[in-house]
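Dear Dr. K.,

Following up on our conversation at the group meeting, I've run the structure prediction for Methylase involved in ubiquinone/menaquinone biosynthesis from Saccharomonospora glauca K62. I'm pasting the input sequence below exactly as I used it, so you can double-check it against your construct before we proceed with anything downstream. Let me know if the numbering doesn't match what you have in your notebook.
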Amino acid sequence: MTTHRHEPDQRSTARYWDDFYAEKDTVWSGKPNELLVRQVADLPPGTALDLGCGEGGDALWLAERGWRVTAVDVSDVALRRGAAHAVAAGVASRITWQRHDLAESFPEGTFDLVSAQFLHSPVAEEGERESVLRRATSAVAPGGVLLIGSHAGWPSWVTSPPFEYRFPTVREIVDALRLPPRGWTVEVAELVETELPDPEGGPGHRTDSVVRVRRL
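The predicted structure tokens came back this morning:
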């Protein structure tokens, strides 16, 4: 989740996120999301779709473990950085980078893993995230997994949120997928609390949710 210092406006989604990434040479740590690591480390490598890949931390981690990754983001700035990181890490041949505004277009094909980690946006239309995640279910190959990591609220030290945002509950995330009664199983649907220092180095925490569903 970004806490972009500018108020969201009517700029296009691509322009908003290009501006966000252009403000700093590096925005994220480059490390993979911990929820992804916990849920995917024991899966056999196959094909993966990384939705909202940002600067590529998750995509690189997957590729280094033998996955063939399609990494998708709306920001050309983020995608260029991710591609450069992949070259430096020696895994460029295992990652395909694609630009998509997921509200308008979606990668083709099916994948053994579809990952949507913290796919929140202050400039998304109402219901857009839920629509994207429903579409993501159709990209899961038989036997494959859809993994959704979401923030359940602002970090403990954020007392004045930079913009208005309603975080979904675990139940809302599962329900929004509209999974058919047969052919899918919900393997994980839970909250995870992580201890994190606040920007001044003091104690803090953040609560996230993880949902993992499998196509049978």
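Two things stood out to me. The chain has a mean pLDDT of 93. The first strand starts at residue 47 and ends at 51.

Best regards,
J.T.
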